[in-house]
Automatic annotation (TrEMBL):
Record membrane topology: Multi-pass membrane protein
Main subcellular localisation: membrane
Keyword flag Transmembrane: yes
Organism listed in the record: Paenibacillus phyllosphaerae
This protein's name: AGZA family xanthine/uracil permease-like MFS transporter
Length: 463
């Protein structure tokens, strides 16, 4: 191991690397419970999603460790899994509903595009083209987006009240005046609501105390509370569950290419690609800096480039296994903080994910309220990027705000990115009329802005 991973050269040893890998696993293992919950709401089997999540995280993290010698873990990403589910659910009331199979196909195709962008170096150009404030705004907007999902799924937040207006069809939520989508506080006496609040308190306290893997421990502690209070029936839940993985239920190559073209969800494919583009880049660069990989700029850039290639393959590979977009996890920094410096850290994390395949019966006990609390806290972590946004300059502040506001309030990540990019090109152009050359507008930004305007003009907001 010392020779293969160059442990001494990186100032580490096998014991430190393995412990760092287990630390990374503990901080991100919550995805094993969250992903089945989120994608299960979109019509996929929770068990099949669990298998795909553990396999994708295990396989591609090990590949990253072995072939790139990089101490970063990969797994289905938060935010994009929520976008996956919301896209499927929101389309069900339209004339061209999107099925889970179509959404998986969109993820697979975005991975192919991502791979092409990586090989042709266009990916690096796009990263340079979009201003930093907008990149950070995307992270913040996604954080608020998944927070709303957590609040809504738990019942802490409700949208409207039961319809009392006779001329509005049943099933449409309205307030007493008949207006739709009015946000209300949920009923605190409902078990899912108070369990979510308990989970929030437990996770928050452990994070303040800097407990490693606070989110995971908070999920488990909330599950124990749910069992004690009788809101989870252990006997009934475990009845018939399998400790040995049943790979016959894996949704392998569960695609519908013809349906994708008939439905026309090009914007969904573009959104998967665009969000993953910046999410992965920020995580890989940030973790590489913390691990000291970028001390040698030439070697560091080469390793980051290889990591991007593996990540691109993992996007399509994860879709083939039956899960939403696989991406690099910022929680990998926890393992790096514990001394992880090489691919042995990633391999250790990947092995732990594969071992988790035998834990489905225990994971099936976790109630939705526990994972909802985790979603809200993950939102807190993502919103921290707001401090990197330049709100003093309106050319950056207004587009960044549009991204942050439009994502959660229109319940669509693509809308936020679209309005942010177009408004930046417009405002930067106007700003340059006043202060010549102050704001850089990359030629790719002009192309993206035109494509976005054409998309909404030709297809509309539901396209």
């Amino acid at each position: 191991m010392n020779g293969f991973f160059r442990l001494k050269e990186h100032g580490t040893n096998a014991r430190t690397e393995i412990l760092a890998g287990l630390t990374t696993f503990m901080t991100m293992a919550y995805i094993l419970a969250l992903n089945p919950n989120i994608l299960g709401s979109a019509g996929l089997s929770a068990y099949s999603v669990f298998l795909a999540t553990a396999l994708a995280a295990g396989i591609f993290t090990i590949v990253l460790g072995l072939f790139v010698n990089f101490p970063v873990a990969l797994a289905p990403g938060m935010g994009l899994n929520a976008y996956f589910a919301s896209t499927v659910l929101a389309s069900q009331a339209t004339d061209a509903p999107i099925t889970p199979e179509m959404a998986l196909t969109a993820v697979f195709m975005s991975g192919i595009i991502f791979l092409i962008l990586t090989i042709t170096q266009v990916r690096q150009m796009l990263i340079v083209a979009v201003p930093d404030s907008l990149k950070h705004a995307i992270t913040v907007g996604i954080g608020l987006f998944i927070t709303i999902i957590g609040l809504k799924n738990s019942g802490v937040m409700t949208i409207g009240v039961e319809n009392t207006v006779t001329d509005i069809p049943k099933g449409v939520f309205t307030d007493v005046l008949g207006f739709e989508t009015v946000i209300h506080m949920g009923n605190l006496e409902v078990p899912s609501v108070y369990l979510t609040l308990v989970g929030l308190a437990l996770i928050a306290i452990m994070m303040v105390l800097r407990v490693p893997g606070a989110i995971l421990w908070g999920i488990l502690a909330t599950t124990v509370v749910a069992i004690i209070t009788g809101n989870v029936d252990v006997g009934q839940t475990l009845e018939g569950q399998r400790w040995i993985p049943d790979f016959s239920e894996l949704n392998f190559w569960n695609f519908d290419f013809s349906g994708v073209w008939e439905t026309g969800i090009v914007s969904v494919i573009v959104t998967f690609t665009f969000v993953e583009l910046f999410d992965t880049f920020g995580t890989l660069i940030g973790t590489a800096n913390r691990a000291g990989i970028m001390k040698d700029p030439v070697e560091g850039k080469k390793r980051v480039g290889k990591a991007m290639f593996v990540d691109a393959v993992a996007v399509s590979g994860g879709a083939m296994l039956g899960t939403s977009t696989v991406t690099a996890y910022v929680e990998s920094s926890a393992g790096i903080a514990q001394g992880g410096r090489t691919g042995l850290t990633a391999v250790s994390t990947g092995v732990a994910f594969l071992a988790a395949l035998f834990l489905w019966p225990l994971i099936s006990l976790i109630p939705g309220s526990a994972t909802a609390a985790a979603l809200i806290i993950v939102g807190v972590l993502m919103v921290q990027s707001i401090k990197e946004i330049d709100f003093q300059d309106m050319v950056y502040a207004i587009p960044a705000f549009f991204i942050i506001a439009f994502m959660p309030f229109t319940y669509n990540i693509a809308n936020g990115i679209s309005f942010g990019l177009v408004s930046y090109v417009l405002l930067a152009f106007v700003g340059n009329l006043r202060d010549k050359g102050k704001y850089k507008i990359h030629w790719l930004m002009w192309i993206l802005a035109v494509l976005i305007v054409l998309r909404y003009a030709l297809v509309g907001s539901q396209g």
